[in-house]
Specification:
Elements (H helix, E strand, L loop, with lengths): L1 H12 L9 E4 L5 E4 L7 E2 L14 E8 L2 E8 L5 E11 L1 E2 L6 E5 L4 E9 L6 E10 L21 E4 L16 E4 L5 E3 L4 E7 L12 E7 L4 E7 L11 E2 L4 E4 L10 E9 L4 E3 L9 E2 L9
Length: 296
C-alpha cells in the first residue's frame, strides 16, 4: 500500500499536474491507482481541507419573561470575542421589534441583554429569532510581524502554499500552508495568546475534517490555527495563555489529511465571516509549487 501512496505523492508533485485532474480507481485485483488520465470507472480525486467549527453550544440565545414582555439574552461562552447578529422574524402583536438585524460584539465569556419585546395587547404575541455569529472582533488589526516557525525540528518542506488549488481555495484557508513532517513533530505557538478551542480525541479521519487542532487568539485580535494534530497529543487547555515557542501538541495525520503534516493558518473576522489572512515566517521555509503532496 505504501508504494501506491508514494506513487500518488509523485503524481501530485508532477509539474504537469497544475493544469490537470487526478482520477482514482480500483482495478480487478483491488489495487487502488491514481492517474491524470480518465479511465472507465475512475472517480475524480478531490482534495478538501474544510474547516468545520460549530460554536452553537457556546454562542446562543436564552429568553427571560417578565411583566414587561420578554428579553433575549445572547451568551458567549468562548475565550474569544464573538460578533453576533440577531434577527427577529414572524413577529405578531409585539412592539420593540427592530427594523433590521441587531449586531453586537461580545467579549470573551460575556452575555448581554440584546433585545426586549413587549406585547401590544391586541392578541397573543409570537415571534421567532435567528442568530448568526462569527469568531473574532472585526475591529482587530493584524500586527505586521513575521512569525517564528510553529514547529521544532526539520528542515521540512511546504507541500501546499497560499492559494493551493487542491484545498487552499475557500475563505477560511486561502492563505494557509501545509508543511510535511513526521508524525510526532513538536508543534509550538507561533505567537503568544489565549487558547480558544482545542480538539484532542480524534483518531484517524474521524468525524472532524480538521482532525485534532488548537486555535489561539493573539493579542492583536487575530487567530492562528494548527490542524491535523496527533491523537491525544494536545497539552494545552481552553482559556490557557501561551507564550511564543510553547509546546501545543505533536503533528499528526488526523481528519481530512492525505499524509502526516501540519496545516497552519492565520485568521480574523472581517464582519460576520472568519477568513484567512496573509502572513510571513521570520525565516525561509523550503517550498514546492502550489499543489499538495501528502497534505490537505
Amino acid at each position: 500500500m505504501r508504494a501506491f501512496f508514494l506513487g500518488l505523492m509523485l503524481l501530485l508533485a508532477s509539474p504537469l499536474l497544475s493544469a490537470s485532474t487526478i482520477y482514482k480507481y480500483t482495478d480487478a485485483n483491488g489495487v487502488v491507482t491514481y492517474t491524470d488520465q480518465k479511465v472507465q470507472g475512475a472517480q475524480v480525486f478531490v482534495f478538501t481541507d474544510t474547516m468545520v467549527e460549530t460554536f452553537d453550544k457556546q454562542v446562543y440565545v436564552t429568553t427571560k419573561k417578565h411583566p414587561g414582555g420578554e428579553t433575549l439574552i445572547v451568551h458567549n461562552d468562548l475565550y474569544a470575542p464573538v460578533e453576533v447578529e440577531l434577527s427577529i422574524e414572524s413577529a405578531r402583536n409585539l412592539i420593540g421589534v427592530p427594523a433590521k438585524p441587531v449586531r453586537w460584539i461580545l467579549q470573551p465569556r460575556e452575555k448581554i441583554r440584546l433585545l426586549t419585546l413587549s406585547p401590544t395587547g391586541d392578541g397573543p404575541p409570537s415571534y421567532s429569532y435567528k442568530l448568526r455569529h462569527a469568531l473574532g472582533d472585526p475591529r482587530a488589526k493584524h500586527a505586521l510581524v513575521d512569525y517564528p516557525l510553529p514547529w521544532n525540528g526539520g528542515p521540512f518542506r511546504v507541500t501546499q502554499g497560499p492559494g493551493g488549488r487542491y484545498s487552499h481555495t475557500g475563505p477560511k484557508g486561502q492563505h494557509a500552508i501545509d508543511i510535511a513532517m513526521p508524525e510526532g513533530t513538536p508543534i509550538v505557538a507561533a505567537r503568544p495568546g489565549v487558547v480558544i478551542k482545542i480538539e484532542n480525541n480524534q483518531n484517524g479521519r474521524g468525524t472532524h475534517p480538521s482532525g485534532n487542532f488548537v486555535r489561539i487568539l493573539h493579542d492583536d485580535g487575530t487567530m492562528s490555527v494548527y490542524l491535523h494534530l496527533k491523537h491525544r497529543s494536545v497539552v494545552v487547555s481552553e482559556g490557557q495563555r501561551v507564550r511564543t515557542g510553547e509546546l501545543l501538541a505533536k503533528s499528526g495525520n488526523t481528519g481530512n489529511s492525505t499524509g502526516p503534516h501540519l496545516h497552519f493558518v492565520v485568521q480574523k473576522n472581517i464582519g460576520l465571516e472568519t477568513v484567512s489572512i496573509p502572513f510571513a515566517f521570520n525565516q525561509p521555509v523550503d517550498s514546492l509549487p502550489n499543489f499538495a503532496i501528502g497534505g490537505e
